[in-house]
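Is iron/sulfur cluster placement plausible here? Inputs below.
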Amino acid sequence: MAKQKNYGMVIDTRVCVACSACVYACKSENAVPEGFCRDWVVQETEGAYPRLRMENRSERCQHCANAPCVTYCPTGASHYSDGTVQVNSSRCTGCKACLAACPYDARYVHPDGYVDKCSLCKHRLDEGLDTACASVCPTASLNLVDYNDPEGKAEKMMAGKEVYRQKEHAGTNPSLYWISASNKPGA
Ligand code: SF4
Ligand code: SF4
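Reply from A.M.:
I modeled the complex. Tokens:
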């Protein structure tokens, strides 16, 4: 029997050029309404003058393995699926308990009254496709991974590099790993 999928992403900030192609691809693929987004790009300056460096990051829901949004959702609308966290809009009452619980500010209330966020394009993954954002990223900063993949793509990508996850102290066990810009030559 095939092993269950355990999807996530390895995001290489060294090569992100902050073009926002991922944001527009997501908006188009998932019909994200005007004024809202499921993913976004952050630009952060690190270090002290004159040794400064810029880290560009495409951010989204972290698809936490211990997700407070799932824990606090009173209707079961927020749920786990193959390592991702999904929202069943027909079960969502728009109570916003998940918005308050999420440490990553990854959710928004859709104008139609339910809560929405990145689904890791689960509808595409189920068809054997890549996420919309990763499929258009011109620099391969965004990498869909399956942590149960026996080939170990995620482990190979991260080997020997400075890697982090966001807000580890929150205990959410996120499925997104970030290859730090500090790995850039000369950083
Ligand atoms: Fe960065 Fe790729 Fe998104 Fe462009 S498409 S902002 S390079 S992650
Ligand atoms: Fe839930 Fe927020 Fe974690 Fe996404 S990032 S799974 S919305 S707690």
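Short version: The pocket of iron/sulfur cluster (ligand 1) is lined by residues 16-22, 41, 56, 58, 137-139, 141-142 (CB under 6 Å).
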